[in-house]
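Narrative of activities, Objective 1.

The group set out to show that a structural description can be obtained from nothing but a protein's sequence at a throughput compatible with the screening campaign. Below is one input-output pair from the validation batch, recorded exactly as produced.
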Amino acid sequence: MDEIITWLLNYAFEHGVGVVTTTDLNPDIPSTAFAAERKILINLKWRNSAEIPFSIAHEIGHILNGDDGKFMLTSVAHSKAEHDANLVAFQILREWAESHDVDVSEPYLFMSCFAIPCKLSDQVAEEYARYDFKGGVAE
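Output recorded for this entry:
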């Protein structure tokens, strides 16, 4: 797990996203993106540690999308900003998987590998239908 977290934090830095990590927060406090500051706060004590890589990628997504405001992964899950941050997170995680030769050729494998919450299964399936996850947009 440390390898992917390190890779994601480096990805953030390389894309001009500031990162603060902490183990001082309650496990129920989600990671957060602060768009105006181009910073993300990552709670490394999150109650489901397997979700931390997806959370990091998701919060990076808010910054890269130029979202305005403060965002937490648990905030209005069906908003356009949350949906679009998920799409960026999927792309970032796919890039990591490809660079580390991890098989995410099926939606279930992808979701399982990155502990993506089940409530996002429809969005993952839509992304797999749109993108072949082997090198390009589906025809």
